[in-house]
Design a protein that fits this description.
- Keywords: ATP-binding, Nucleotide-binding.
- By secondary structure, the protein is an alpha/beta fold.
- It has two domains: about 1-130 and about 280-354; about 135-240, no CATH class.
- About 35% of the residues lie in helices and about 25% in strands.
- The chain has helices at about 35-45, 60-75, 145-155, 160-170, 180-195, 225-235, 260-275, 285-295, 335-350, and strands at about 5-10, 15-20, 25-30, 95-100, 105-110, 120-125, 135, 200, 205-210, 215, 245-250, 275-280, 305-315, 320-325.
- The strands form three sheets. Strands 7-11-12-3-13-14 form a six-stranded mixed sheet, with helices on both faces. Strands 2-1-4-5-6 form a five-stranded antiparallel sheet, covered by helices on one side. A three-stranded antiparallel sheet has the order 8-9-10, covered by helices on one side.
- A hairpin with a 7-residue loop joins strand 5 (about 105-110) and strand 6.
- The longest helix is centred in the C-terminal third of the chain and has 18 residues, at about 335-350.
- The relative contact order is 0.15.
Length: about 350
């Protein structure tokens, strides 16, 4: 299952937007507060509720509440009033947003700015949709905290967005039965070569096993290794498969730059397996690693569809706009490259005294 298009009207920072996505890898960049994470969250909120649910026994009211609760859990607006997600304007206002997917499936959600816990939901489905999985990897890693997080979240009000809870539940799954697919083994082989070890789980605790050195607790590893460990375990448990849509919010967070290339290689391997990937980033290295893959055919022999999306604000109106290109180097508004160039210019002025 692939997301084909996202349409937003008056949703948070976005006035009107219609984004057509690549089937393989989508890289979203932009300055702070331009809506990178918002794009990931809204798509996740719309498609996650029905990813593994049989709709036949649901009433319309039950369907609506699934979407409302997901929006509340993912965005966590004040007092859980979903109307606060509508673009802030004087008077009454309304948002409507939709996600178009394969098999002529479209989910549309709408509500007004004074609405608290009700939304109008429309679901169109042409051909019978295949089962799919949806995973959101937030900025904080979760594999070192799985042991108690799910039970705490179930029993107490914890100020974590629901993506953390969803991810912890996936990591809490046991290993799947039966052999891995050829595609899974290829990805696992690449990742284990990068990490030089294997992931094992014992009593809901995760360890990194290095041949000849023993097992190391996840808390002793760097963030980069922990994030790759999450990917490996979700492949082993069957949660991350060729029918998965993966959202990854700023994978560079707390990451040693040396780990960026392995992380990108991992995402490329997943995309080749069939996973559709959405990445938000501030990082020059991530953007350029993907840009090289997109630019040079020898680095992209399978001709994966890679798309770069830049979000930026209009200096006069402060409205958020966007552009989409097949190469990051073709973006007219590229906050990452603009800052890189500005730093170079500052250094030249210091060197030459201009």
């Amino acid at each position: 299952m692939k997301i084909k298009k996202l349409t937003l009207n008056n949703f948070m920072a976005f006035g009107n937007a219609e984004m057509n996505w690549a089937d393989n890898i989508n890289i979203i960049c932009g300055e702070n507060s331009t809506g990178k994470t918002t794009l990931l969250k809204v798509m996740y909120s719309v498609i996650k509720p029905f990813s593994n649910i049989n709709r036949e026994n649901l009433t319309k009211e039950m369907e609506e509440q699934l979407f409302v609760k997901k929006l509340q859990g993912v965005f966590r607006p004040d007092e859980m009033k979903i109307g606060r997600l509508v673009s802030r304007k004087q008077g009454s206002n309304r948002t409507e947003f939709s996600v178009d997917m394969e098999k002529q499936q479209k989910i549309t959600v709408g509500f007004g700015n004074r609405q608290e816990n009700h939304a109008d939901v429309s679901i169109e489905q042409g051909e019978k949709a295949r089962k799919y999985d949806v995973i959101y990897i937030p900025t904080k890693e979760m594999i070192s905290t799985v042991e108690h997080f799910v039970s705490l979240y179930d029993e107490y009000h914890i100020d974590f967005e629901e993506m953390y809870y969803d991810l912890a539940k996936l990591l809490d799954r046991p290993l799947s039965k039966g052999p891995n697919t050829i595609e899974q083994n290829q990805v696992l082989s690449n990742l284990e070569d990068i990490m030089k070890g294997q992931i094992v789980q014992k009593n809901k605790k995760f360890y990194f096993k290095i041949k000849g050195e023993g097992e190391f607790e996840m808390g002793l590893l760097s963030d980069g290794y922990r994030k790759l460990s999450m990917i490996i375990y979700m492949i082993l448990s069957g949660s991350l498969n060729k029918n998965t849509i993966l959202f990854w919010d700023e994978p560079e967070t707390n990451m040693n730059p040396k780990m960026i290339r392995p992380i990108v290689q991992a995402m490329v391997a997943l995309a080749q397996m069939g996973v559709q990937i959405f990445v938000s980033t501030h990082d020059y290295f991530i953007q350029q690693e993907f840009n090289m893959i997109a630019a040079y055919p020898e680095l992209n022999p399978k001709k994966m569809d890679i798309r770069f999306i830049s979000l930026f604000r209009d200096e006069a109106t402060h409205d958020v706009h966007y552009e989409m290109r097949n190469l990051a180097s073709d973006l007219e508004h590229n906050a990452i490259m603009q800052e890189f160039d500005a730093m170079y210019d500052r250094e030249q002025r210091i060197i030459y005294g201009e």
